């Protein structure tokens, strides 16, 4: 079932007389539980036309590097293979994505696309809509509850958006069956063969400073990781998720970021498995994640210090001249050259593997704020490090997490130096959660 709330018309009109329906896949790089793909298949069947799925690969995506590109390409490999199994042609072409799609749309009757949450990709869809003379339909498939359905404004915190999500969540947690296409489209258009991600990667002119991380991308790996988590990790999630020495987290974030996994699919499988950690997991996957979508959709400065709430910037400004016991440059932080062995370990883990445990990510961010000459400098450093090394960087969740460091989606706490009334974190808090010394030794 594809609910009408998921569907938005970006460019209206009647379908043209083209040769196929085009699905511009950009955010939702998967064939399973993809509402945009299934909507496009329905439209192709109704028009008695073949369906073409296309992806535009640009070497110039902001802040992307070898780590993120390989993960993405591994997803495109799975998409090509799985679409071929359904008789649907997949076209991968190099170039600026909206320009690639404009060229492919010249022979199309209708264009369908998935939804993006950050400015660069959102602007691509706007650019294409302004230039098409056929309809462009956007189908939201990476949120459980569509953004505007949940709320029509910027939400203050999880406590304000939570009841709104829970009110509608079950309406959207419904199965989605794959549509059989009536007209096959294999070989209809040419493109880059996506079956060898490493080969494509070698030919791209991209930043090579960050090698691939620990996780392997693609919807098939995503499904394997999800299956293992719901069978073995979900029942202990509530008690183990804040301990980085055990594999208690779901480790699904990168797959969700690249669209290799549907959050609806995740929740449905988690509900079927059940377990003591289901409520806590749902809170993280749905409420907290979709709070970040709300932030990026309704706050045009979601990735800037100036976009923080007034109270956060005011209290930090009041303490801007407070003495800092330690000050580190961006280069020193990037190289994990601080006096804090726990912070250094978290930085090492992120650089080496492409991920950092969520609880440590909060501590990591708070310390950068404490050790920077100004909060503005701290904000810039956190965006730089997160987006460079985290496989799930350049993501709505990432920006929400960074903004939380500075007080967004939180409340004022007791006043203290440097932080004012923004929440503070200390190493003793880590030690209450887990064996912090063992963690530091592991990643030294």
From TrEMBL:
SUPFAM superfamilies: Cryptochrome/photolyase FAD-binding domain (SSF48173), Cryptochrome/photolyase, N-terminal domain (SSF52425). Residues 204-219 have a biased composition (Basic and acidic residues). InterPro entries: Crypto/Photolyase_FAD-like_sf (IPR036134), Crypto/Photolyase_N_sf (IPR036155), DNA_photolyase_N (IPR006050), Photolyase_Class-2 (IPR052219), Rossmann-like_a/b/a_fold (IPR014729). The keyword Nucleotide-binding does not apply. Residues 19-147 form the Photolyase/cryptochrome alpha/beta domain. Residues 204-224 are annotated as: Disordered. One of its GO terms (molecular function) is deoxyribodipyrimidine photo-lyase activity. This is Deoxyribodipyrimidine photo-lyase. The lineage of its organism: Bacteria, Thermotogati, Deinococcota, Deinococci, Deinococcales. Keywords: Lyase. The keyword Cell division does not apply. It holds the Pfam family DNA_photolyase. Its EC number is 4.1.99.3.
């Amino acid at each position: 079932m594809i609910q009408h709330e998921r569907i938005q018309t970006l460019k209206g009109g009647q379908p043209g007389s083209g040769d196929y329906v085009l699905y511009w896949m950009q955010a939702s790089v998967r064939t399973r539980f993809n509402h945009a793909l299934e909507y496009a298949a329905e439209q192709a069947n109704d028009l008695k036309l073949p369906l073409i799925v296309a992806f535009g690969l640009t070497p110039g995506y902001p802040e992307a590097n070898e780590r993120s590109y390989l993960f993405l390409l591994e997803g495109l490999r799975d998409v090509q293979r799985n679409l071929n199994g359904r008789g649907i042609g997949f076209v991968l072409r190099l170039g600026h994505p909206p320009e690639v799609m404009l060229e492919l749309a010249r022979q199309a009757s209708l264009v369908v696309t998935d939804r993006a949450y950050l400015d660069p990709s959102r602007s691509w869809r706007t650019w294409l809509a302004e230039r098409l003379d056929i309809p462009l339909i956007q189908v939201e498939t990476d949120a459980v509850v569509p953004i505007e359905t949940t709320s029509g404004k910027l939400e203050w915190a999880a406590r304000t958006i939570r009841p709104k999500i829970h009110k509608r969540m079950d309406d959207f947690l419904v199965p989605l069956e794959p549509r059989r296409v009536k007209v096959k489209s294999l070989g209809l258009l040419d493109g880059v063969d996506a079956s060898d991600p490493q080969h494509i990667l070698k030919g791209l002119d991209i930043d090579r400073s960050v090698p691939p991380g620990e996780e392997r991308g693609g919807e098939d790996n995503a499904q394997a990781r999800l299956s293992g988590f719901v069978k073995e990790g979900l029942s202990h999630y509530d008690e183990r998720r804040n301990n980085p020495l055990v594999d208690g987290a779901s480790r699904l974030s990168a797959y969700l970021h690249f669209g290799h996994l549907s959050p609806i699919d995740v929740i449905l499988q988690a509900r079927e498995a059940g377990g003591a950690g289901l409520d806590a997991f749902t809170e993280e996957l749905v409420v907290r994640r979709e709070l970040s979508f709300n932030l990026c959709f309704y706050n045009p400065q979601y990735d800037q210090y100036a976009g923080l709430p007034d109270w956060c910037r005011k209290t930090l400004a009041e303490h801007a001249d407070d003495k800092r016991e330690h000050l580190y440059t961006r280069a020193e932080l990037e190289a994990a050259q601080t006096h804090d062995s726990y912070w250094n370990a978290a930085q090492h883990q992120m650089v080496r593997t492409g991920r950092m445990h969520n609880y440590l990510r909060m501590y990591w961010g708070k310390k950068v704020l404490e050790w920077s000459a100004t909060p503005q400098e701290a904000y810039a450093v956190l965006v730089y490090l997160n987006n460079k090394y985290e496989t799930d960087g350049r993501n709505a969740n990432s920006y929400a997490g960074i903004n939380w460091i500075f007080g967004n989606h939180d409340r004022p706490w007791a006043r203290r130096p440097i932080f004012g009334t923004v929440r503070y974190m200390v190493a003793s808090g880590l030690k209450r959660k887990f064996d912090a010394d063992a963690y530091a030794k592991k990643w030294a």
